[in-house]
Amino acid sequence: MTDLQLGSLIVAGAIVGAVYLFNWWQEYRYRKNTQRAFARNQPDVLMDTPKNMVRGGERFEPALDEPTRFEPPVSPTSTMAPPEPAEPQYTAPQFAPQYDAEPAAAPVVPRQRDDDDSDALAESLLDPALDFIAEVHARENIPASDVPRFPAPKRNQSIGRTESEHWEQVSTSSGASYSELRIALQLADRQGALSGEQLNAFCMAVQQFADAHDAIATFPQRAAKLAAARELDEFCASVDVLIGLNVASAGRPFPLERVRLLAENAGLSRASDGTFVYKSDSGKTLFALSNQNQGPLGPTSEGLRLLFDVPRVAGGLAVFDYLSDFAQQLAGSLGGTLVDDNGRPLAAASLDNIRRQLARLYATMDDRGIAPGSVSALRLFA
């Protein structure tokens, strides 16, 4: 090999090495830039979920779904500081490095409400665990004005798939027409479980509607759904509790004006039926104060009753704690006695025992997947 050939090989090797090092440096630099551009301050939506939103493995006692005028224990999330503003995002170059690498994920940006959200909202109106859901598949779209309110003894709700392939709640005032309908009948409520006769009448009405529009109606297996209705009703009966705390007078009637002042100071307001109600900021009734004899409140009262509808109240333990404190304050201020529905005095130990039973009841509801005060609970205990 001549000196010229040897020199050429050395020069070629140096050029190849330089190109390799240059490409390696470019790859390294672009990877670092891309990581800075897309990974800065991006939270992990699985790992960073607040603890009170995690349901696996550990039960959390219910907390009020919103702050109210009293000071019960609040959810940990209500004391969290607002997130700091995100740092400005680096904009990656418009050209890409020439190497095989998996592209980094785009930054997470808030998604505005769209048709997917509307679909989810409409479909949430129906629940296979709570409803018997019939389906109607139309050969030709059915106008919303042609969909009747099917006669039924329990909650009846319909949603339809529009021409744009999105679900919406059916309304006779809507100008939409539907290629498919889902028509639901609730399985149970406080009037009891859905009966076979009621279900048959509902199915017949849906079938007649489908026949009139040359559509195909399909139904779940009726025997299985009737069995589910009975089981659901039995569960609801086991947790359907109304707690009553009574303030009995010691012979001298309570003046209503004094009662009104104590109630308003505690955050209660007068309702249209004359009772006093304590509400959350969103207007949901948490408990009520009325006459013990269930008559209207007059100038005086021989006794007062505080009622707490257990399964319909979110954060029931905190509400019960406040209810108990208010009941004891009311009895002390009026010179009355706090008693149960049988007239037996309620001491602090008695109230503690009620609270423990209430905690077990709420745990049972949580295990069933029917959160107290949730949409499902409000439907079932109505």
From TrEMBL:
**Any one of the GO CC terms:** plasma membrane
Gene Ontology biological process terms, A to Z: cell septum assembly
Topological type in the membrane: Single-pass type I membrane protein
* Signal peptide range: none
Localized where? Cell inner membrane
The record's section on SUPFAM superfamilies has:
Cell-division protein ZipA, C-terminal domain
Entry keyword annotation includes Membrane: yes
Region of interest: Disordered: 63-86, 144-171
Pfam families given in the database record: ZipA_C
Indicate the transmembrane segments per the record: 6-25
Q: Keywords in UniProt for this one? A: Cell cycle, Cell division, Cell inner membrane, Cell membrane, Membrane, Transmembrane, Transmembrane helix
Annotated ranges, domain ZipA C-terminal FtsZ-binding = 239-358
Per the annotation, which location comes first and is thus the protein's main one? membrane
Query: What is the stated purpose of this protein?
Result: Essential cell division protein that stabilizes the FtsZ protofilaments by cross-linking them and that serves as a cytoplasmic membrane anchor for the Z ring. Also required for the recruitment to the septal ring of downstream cell division proteins.
Query: Hey, which family's this protein in?
Result: Belongs to the ZipA family.
This chain belongs to which protein, by name? Answer: Cell division protein ZipA
Q: Which organism is it from?
A: Chitiniphilus eburneus
